[in-house]
Prior knowledge:
Elements: H1 3-9, E1 14-20, E2 25-33, E3 39-46, H2 51-71, E4 77-84, H3 93-105, E5 110-114, H4 120-126, H5 147-166, E6 175-179, H6 183-194, E7 198-202, H7 206-216, E8 219-220, E9 233-236, E10 255-256, H8 268-275, E11 279-280, H9 283-286, H10 289-298, H11 305-312, H12 314-329, H13 333-348
Parallel strand pairs: 3-4, 3-5, 6-7, 6-9, 7-8, 10-11
Antiparallel strand pairs: 1-2, 2-4
Helix pairs in contact: 2-13, 3-4, 5-6, 5-10, 5-11, 5-12, 10-11, 12-13
The structure holds nicotinamide-adenine-dinucleotide (NAD).
The site of nicotinamide-adenine-dinucleotide has 26 residues, from helix 5 and helix 6.
Amino acid sequence: MHVFERLSEYDYEKVVFCNDNESGLRAIIAIHDTTLGPALGGVRMLPYRTDEEALTDVLRLSRGMTYKAAISGVDLGGGKSVVIGDSRTSKNPAMLRALGRFIERMGGEYIAGQDIGTNSHDMAVIRGATKNVACVNESAGGAGDPSRTTAYGVSCGIRAVLKATTGSDSFAGRHIAIQGLGNVGFSVARFCHEAGAKLTVADIYEPAVVRAASEMAAEVVSTDEIYDVECDVFSPNSIGGVINDDTVPRLRCPAVAGGANNVLAEACHADALTARGITYGPDYLVNSGGLIRCQEEVFGRPTEDFTIYSKVTQIYDQTLQVIGLAEELGISTAAAADWMAEERIATTK
Ligand code: NAD
């Protein structure tokens, strides 16, 4: 697997392989960088086909968290964990507690949160073994699922790309194409709709699109057709890698901004968007609202909507700043965001 080669490529600090035969836990915790603070990142549970696939995912995601925290001014480092297994059939409380014990032994250098395959109730179970966990459900005294805050931040990012491409940040009469109507995407749709936007939506989960059509008069298209919709902003809020060789030439919009992590299949696709004159709101900046909320929870500060939302609104200005820097330097917005994040880490060291 050449683990050390992989770690040295992007200077990862630590990887912990966790095994517990009794509960069936097989997990990997990766810490990319703790320059800015303890590493925070969600627990993702997926039926990875190989250990290598799980390692690749946890490394990529933990590094993404470092950049997300750095650019959004959050005093946390980048980490992530993956649990190998199907969350619908294999997840059990003993497994979550076992993971909690591994996290506890890390002495506070990694703080868990929810991600695909886990939820705020699972975080409450993990808290039975360690205090180093965020997103614990509200009835157990935590700040709960951060998805709505993430979605609010995504709406700020969409406003910023609208401003950059149309001169106005108003949603009124604008057309937003939304891919994915899960925890984040449905709320993004709601924010855009309530601000006056027309919506076209797609999701593999039929009930979600039916609900969006009935509650927000959204036009529904297939999961393939969503790339061809003529609109003001394409907003990816489902899986990663959807901006790729096949889809970039198909997009009929001046801007892309959404909540999905790792939305670019490869770094070169940021340049491909720029070459087509499409303004890209960098994923880890646009979707950093949930992390901003988690930071407040971790440091014991108020997490009520008003306080948090006023902080998350900064995503609007920061996205415009990144777009301005990219234009000035003649680089993609993704490269400009990376540069800003790396600068913050370098000046903190
Ligand atoms: P979710 O699982 O609730 O929603 C994902 C949705 O995408 C589901 O409705 C699913 O049916 C749909 N989907 C899957 N494949 C699809 C496809 N090919 N085409 C269209 N729809 C498809 O997840 P979520 O919490 O809403 O997260 C969405 C994205 O945002 C993920 O990439 C996640 O990593 C990222 N993100 C989430 C948060 C958060 O606070 N939840 C924070 C930052 C980033």
